[in-house]
Amino acid sequence: MDVRRRTVKPLYTPKDASAGEPLKLHKQQQVSSPKASDALPLPLYLTNGLFFTMFFSVMYFLLVRWREKIRNSIPLHVVTLSELVAMISLIASVIYLLGFFGIGFVQSFVSRSNSDSWDIEDENAEQLIIEEDSRRGGPCAAATTLGCAVPPPPVRIIVPMVPQQPAKVALSLTEKPAPIITPAVSEDDEEIIQSVVQGKTPSYSLESKLGDCKRAASIRKEALQRITGKSLEGLPLEGFDYDSILGQCCEMPVGYVQIPVGIAGPLLLDGREYSVPMATTEGCLVASTNRGCKAIFASGGANSVLLRDGMTRAPVVRFTTAKRAAELKFFVEDPLNFETLSVMFNKSSRFARLQSIQCAIAGKNLYMRFSCSTGDAMGMNMVSKGVQNVLDYLQNEYPDMDVIGISGNFCSDKKPAAVNWIEGRGKSVVCEAIIKEEVVKKVLKTEVASLVELNMLKNLTGSAMAGALGGFNAHASNIVSAVYLATGQDPAQNVESSHCITMMEAVNDGKDLHVSVTMPSIEVGTVGGGTQLASQSACLSLLGVKGANRDAPGSNARLLATIVAGSVLAGELSLMSAISAGQLVKSHMKYNRSSKDITQVTSSSSSS
């Protein structure tokens, strides 16, 4: 944190100047500013009560007297002693109340006047001492004579208070710490920055107070640099629409992170070509996926099937006995009651439609896994609102039901779970392609039999040996994460969205390769969240799935899920081929690592 300190000028007497010893600092400590509550030596509540009572009683007294004077035709300027005392008391109480309830300019004016008077006294005292020394002709009689160094005038410097690192040597007395170089700020912004640094203004309230999201981010970034003493020079601020994320995507922004976006494709899927955007910092990933797209394209393309579309939310409720929990389970699962529950659920949104409710009991606790369609939205908020409506209805039917939480992890969101792997969550998709023998050899540089064997030993047997849950693949999460970042999806949902089993089998008398990926829980949307940001919206537009589909609600999100699965198919095909042909290390050294000889660099640096 940068701390501004008022310069204190040390005073020297002729006697001590020769010895080089400074006197004690003159009036070093600042005088605390007066407060309105210091008017009387009483507790604060008594002082406030006294002045409140004085104000209202005196005001009532004066109004009554003035009314009598008007009725009796007595001039108002003719006042008695009691009226004079009342008016003085009224003025005193008004001054106190104004000073206590927010008029702070009087206090700041008084404190500023006091500090200015200290400066004047210091300058006058220093001038007198210099003149005294000149008259006495001491060793430092004049500042311009040779042989006596006069200390330079003090300079006000903002120095970041950075904790000293243990590995660094302490600075000598002649060295000065280098201050952090920051862009110049206006006087108004500087005042707000100081207020944030001092804790007077909460950082989260800058947008609402300033009404300018970009300015708020700039001020917050500068305040953060001063508080931490760390430079954020490499974190860009310009070129981003901060209004678009207010209340939607990110709180208290200080900039944005740059992630390069590459294009893999064209991906020929279901008879249509797609250029797939991938945001990643892993070299070789886009190139590898692009090679898989090339192999699929050369073999006639891939086909996909959407198996299921339903977002889930599972609240947990508790009863006094397991019997009562079982009674609610039977009630919820009864087909005769489903229509009533659907009506309560569906009124939360015109797109939310309840599909099923799956229950599980643990003692006297009941978990109800609601599944519903959510249109083109990913749907977490939508399904949560519908579940809340159903819980409110059930609370009337079962007053002894205690709602522990609207999410009981039986959903299960952003965690690897067998229920998602088996039952599915979001969009369940299977995608397949038949890669011709000549494509396997010329494009993928390997053999069909080698791919089939590797897939069995690596993706199936190896994952089973590791106890994998939904991880029977080579690197599905690589492609899912890259596409999610580029299209504005929730990157944390990569956990369950990357559940995938990759299958490879020799077909057509062992000449061609049948490859497929089955992904039961792809959680995507084309509206809401990060999809409305400019960059992510452009990537969705590139795929032809931007926004909501008015003619067929939900079709854009479902199409995006199949594109994700098709991209994973391409990525799996290419990586497995690289491993089978022994090209993995070579390709990563070419695209993802430096080609410099580290041993030569080390030896040359040591010799120099």
From TrEMBL:
<dbReference type="GO" id="GO:0005789">
    <property type="term" value="C:endoplasmic reticulum membrane"/>
</dbReference>
<comment type="function">
    <text>Catalyzes the synthesis of mevalonate. The specific precursor of all isoprenoid compounds present in plants.</text>
</comment>
<dbReference type="GO" id="GO:0004420">
    <property type="term" value="F:hydroxymethylglutaryl-CoA reductase (NADPH) activity"/>
</dbReference>
<keyword id="KW-0325">Glycoprotein</keyword>
<dbReference type="InterPro" id="IPR002202">
    <property type="entry name" value="HMG_CoA_Rdtase"/>
</dbReference>
<dbReference type="InterPro" id="IPR023076">
    <property type="entry name" value="HMG_CoA_Rdtase_CS"/>
</dbReference>
<keyword id="KW-0414">Isoprene biosynthesis</keyword>
<feature type="transmembrane region" description="Helical">
    <location>
        <begin position="42"/>
        <end position="63"/>
    </location>
</feature>
<protein>
    <recommendedName>
        <fullName>3-hydroxy-3-methylglutaryl coenzyme A reductase</fullName>
        <ecNumber>1.1.1.34</ecNumber>
    </recommendedName>
</protein>
<feature type="transmembrane region" description="Helical">
    <location>
        <begin position="84"/>
        <end position="106"/>
    </location>
</feature>
<keyword id="KW-0560">Oxidoreductase</keyword>
<keyword id="KW-0521">NADP</keyword>
<dbReference type="GO" id="GO:0015936">
    <property type="term" value="P:coenzyme A metabolic process"/>
</dbReference>
<dbReference type="GO" id="GO:0009753">
    <property type="term" value="P:response to jasmonic acid"/>
</dbReference>
<dbReference type="GO" id="GO:0016135">
    <property type="term" value="P:saponin biosynthetic process"/>
</dbReference>
<comment type="pathway">
    <text>Metabolic intermediate biosynthesis; (R)-mevalonate biosynthesis; (R)-mevalonate from acetyl-CoA: step 3/3.</text>
</comment>
<dbReference type="InterPro" id="IPR009023">
    <property type="entry name" value="HMG_CoA_Rdtase_NAD(P)-bd_sf"/>
</dbReference>
<dbReference type="InterPro" id="IPR023074">
    <property type="entry name" value="HMG_CoA_Rdtase_cat_sf"/>
</dbReference>
<keyword id="KW-1133">Transmembrane helix</keyword>
<dbReference type="GO" id="GO:0008299">
    <property type="term" value="P:isoprenoid biosynthetic process"/>
</dbReference>
<keyword id="KW-0256">Endoplasmic reticulum</keyword>
<dbReference type="GO" id="GO:0016104">
    <property type="term" value="P:triterpenoid biosynthetic process"/>
</dbReference>
<keyword id="KW-0472">Membrane</keyword>
<dbReference type="Pfam" id="PF00368">
    <property type="entry name" value="HMG-CoA_red"/>
</dbReference>
<comment type="similarity">
    <text>Belongs to the HMG-CoA reductase family.</text>
</comment>
<dbReference type="InterPro" id="IPR004554">
    <property type="entry name" value="HMG_CoA_Rdtase_eu_arc"/>
</dbReference>
<dbReference type="InterPro" id="IPR023282">
    <property type="entry name" value="HMG_CoA_Rdtase_N"/>
</dbReference>
<dbReference type="InterPro" id="IPR009029">
    <property type="entry name" value="HMG_CoA_Rdtase_sub-bd_dom_sf"/>
</dbReference>
<dbReference type="GO" id="GO:0016126">
    <property type="term" value="P:sterol biosynthetic process"/>
</dbReference>
<dbReference type="GO" id="GO:0005778">
    <property type="term" value="C:peroxisomal membrane"/>
</dbReference>
<keyword id="KW-0812">Transmembrane</keyword>
